[in-house]
Amino acid sequence: MSISLKKGQRVSLEKIAPGLIAVFVGLGWDVKRTDTGKSFDLDASVFLLGSNEKLLSDQHFIFYNNLTSPDPDQSVKHMGDNLTGAGEGDDEAIIVDLRKVPPEVAKIVFTITIYEAEERGQNFGQVENGFVRLVDVQTKQEILRYDLSEDYSIETAMIMGELYLKDGEWRMSAIGEGYQGGLQALLDRYN
Questions:
Q1: What is the mean pLDDT of residues 159-185?
Q2: Which domains does the chain have, with CATH numbers?
Q3: Which segments constitute the TerD domain (predicted)?
């Protein structure tokens, strides 16, 4: 049974899925039927942060040009870039092996940005049905889901959710925070 989170809500993964060892993080979206004359390319990215809420290194920024975390076990893996977002379900996905995440990683932040949004005149007001969901890799069951419900008419970057350690257990937080300035705004925040 999947739990539906609201913006700002937090949940312990140990309480809702005891013994969870790895998660498939699916991110999805649809483009509204507005014609900007250019195709939409949304990108999922992951920021691996230390306890200071900053990127541990450039290699701890996981995206379409850097698909795996730098630790020897590659505990975080981006499954590749979807250039159109067409079709149902997850548009981009990340696998996180919770057992192998290095101890220096205090938080894992999942984001979506619009590629070349400014040049293409695009924003999240033209995107609908955005979501992030966690699936147990072993059972293939959806554990939780957060659906974006607000209208983000000027934002070009979104922080969807965060996985973080608290008192020795992994927790998920639904963020739903929008930014202007695309990916660069997020890089500035976490560097």
A1: 92
A2: 3-190 (2.60.60.30)
A3: 1-190
